[in-house]
Amino acid sequence: MSETKPPLDPNLKALESEAIHIFREVAAEFERPVMLYSVGKDSSVLLHLARKAFYPGKIPFPLLHIDTGWKFAEMIAFRDHMVEQFDLDLVAHTNARGVLENVSPFTHGSSVYTNIMKTEALRQGLDAGQYDAAFGGARRDEEASRAKERIYSFRTPDHRWDPRNQRPELWSVYNGMIKKGESVRAFPLSNWTEVDIWRYIKAENIPIVPLYFAARRPVVERDGMLILAEDKRLKPLPGEVVQQQMIRFRTLGCFPLTGAIRSEATTLDEIIDELETATVSERQGRAIDRDEAGSMEKKKREGYF
Amino acid sequence: MNINAEVVEQAKPAIDADTRNARPLRLITCGSVDDGKSTLIGRLLWDTKAVKEDQADALARDNRNQQNGLGLPDFALLLDGLQAEREQGITIDVAYRYFSSEKRSFIVADTPGHEQYTRNMATGASTADLAILLVDARTGILEQTRRHATIATLMGIRQFVLAVNKIDLIDYDRLRFDEIATQFRQLALSLGVTDVTAIPMSALLGENVVYSGKTNMPWYVGKSLVEVLELATQRSAQTVGFRLPVQRVSRPNEGFRGYQGTVAGGSVKPGDSVVILPSGTVANVKQIVTFDLVRNAAVAGDAITLVLDRPVDIARGDMIASIDAAPASGLSFEAKLVALAPDGVSAQKRYWLKSSSRRQRVRVNPKTLLDLKSGQWNDADALPLNGIGTVQLAFDEEALFDPYETNRNTGAFILIDPDTNNTVAGGMIVARSAAVDGLSSDDGLDQTLLSLPSDLAKKLMQSDVFKAMREQIEIRHTSANRASSILRELD
Question: What is the value of ipTM here, to two decimals?
Answer without folding.
Answer: 0.90
